Every structure is written in structure tokens, then in C-alpha cells.
Amino acid sequence: MKEALERIRVAEEKNEAAKKSQEADLAQLRTEKERALASLVEDLRTKRGQLHADEEQKLQQALTDEKNSLVQEAQAERQSFQALYEERHETLVNEIIERVTSTYGS
């Protein structure tokens, strides 16, 4: 009977040691998983931030391209209007000179 009690005590000690070992392993695994999760979350935040930065850069480039296009278009329109003005101005001045000449002579 004494021997049986001794074996039970030894078995309980082994079980307790195994339990503590498993708890330590579990705590270490939990810590590793938490670190991995934190690293993954940080990577995702970084990637999301980079995606936002890339998208913002694309939009900024599109805006700059549109602005440049509009500026070029406005310059072309202005040159066209200037040329048309000069042409009509020249024609109008010539017509006025002809009228004055025909009315009052040269």
C-alpha cells in the first residue's frame, strides 16, 4: 500500500511537472503568436498606408496632367483668339481706311 501511495505521489508530481511545462510552452506559444499577429497588423498598416500614398500620388499626377492639359488648351485658345483678333483688326482697319479714302479721297 505504501508503495502504491508512493507511485501515486510520483505520478502526481510528474503530472504537475508536465502541466507546468505545458503551461510554459503554451505561454511561450501565445507570446509568439501575439508577436506574429502584431507584426502582421503592422505590416498591413504599412501596406495600407503605402496603398493610400500610391493612390494619392496617382490622383495628384492625374490632377497635374489635367491642369497641364487645360493650361495648354487655354494657351492654344488664347493664341487662336489673338490671331483671329489681329486678322479681324487688320481687316477692320483696312475697311475703315478704304471708307475714309473713298469718302474723303486720298
Please explain how this structure is put together.
The chain has 106 residues and is mostly helical. The chain has one domain. The protein is 97% helix and 0% strand. The N and C termini lie far apart (149 Å). The model has no long low-confidence stretch (mean pLDDT 95).
Can you give the mean pLDDT? 95
- Secondary-structure content class: mainly alpha
Number of domains: 1
Radius of gyration: 45 Å
What is the molecular shape?
rod-shaped
Q: How many H/I helices?
A: 1
Distance between the termini: 149 Å
Number-wise, the strands total 0
What quaternary form is this?
Answer: single chain
- The helical percent reads over 70%
Question: Could you give a short account of the major beta sheet?
Answer: none
Along the chain, the helix and strand elements come as H
Keywords: Coiled coil
Keywords:
coiled coil, mainly alpha, 106 residues, rod-shaped
What is the topological layout?
Elements: H1 2-104
Give a quick precis of the structure.
This protein has one domain. Helices cover 97% and strands 0% of the residues. Keywords: Coiled coil.
